[in-house]
């Protein structure tokens, strides 16, 4: 599906009589509207429980509860800081991969953005399947998996800093996306075992504030500094997340085993 959509988008971009850069997005509008109508007609609403308390009071109470949980649990602090730092580098990569590859492409040749993006998605799927294989064999822990991902991510960001090869940079980015496929289920398992269900979304929202500050700060500097400096910043963020102390319970419990018994 991703490859087919990328091929259609490339054809629209090359054949659009209006702005070729916005052509694929314009065509996506009616497709999304059709999906909206289908979801509205075919999906039932999952409303959850009904609460009598006012929404404002519930929100304040949830924030207080999440803040107390973060303050009293050092493992949760380390985990959420690790998530904020690593995902800040990820969001910067989203804006960075296109100019990095364009600068290394052959002169006068456009890179196939849609095909490359679909390749990234395939690499991410490969990483997710590797995680499933490791989980089935019972040999991988969340912490070990994340340490591997962080180490590989640093290498992937360093490669474009030391080579002007288009193929080299593309392979490094594909490896990075494969690592993302490992990262998402590993961090989701670790976060699910550390954060209670009733405040999980609130805790994640609180840590998105520093995450967005880091991302916006770097994006404001992209036009004013060199590509290598931004890549170095991404490496520093990943190394910082790598240096965060892992929660003790994750070091001794395999994936799939509840960690709440050892959590504070």
TrEMBL record:
Molecular-function GO term, any one: molybdate ion transmembrane transporter activity
One cellular component term from this protein's GO annotations in UniProt: plasma membrane
Gene3D superfamilies: MFS general substrate transporter like domains
Keyword Transcription regulation in annotation: no
Pfam families membership: MFS_5
Subcellular location, record wording: Cell membrane
UniProtKB keywords: Cell membrane, Ion transport, Membrane, Transmembrane, Transmembrane helix, Transport
Domain of life: Eukaryota
Membrane topology, record value: Multi-pass membrane protein
InterPro entries per the UniProt record, alphabetical: MFS_trans_sf, MOT2/MFSD5
The UniProt record lists the keyword Cell membrane: yes
Biological processes per GO annotation: monoatomic ion transport
Function, as annotated: Mediates high-affinity intracellular uptake of the rare oligo-element molybdenum.
Protein name: Molybdate-anion transporter
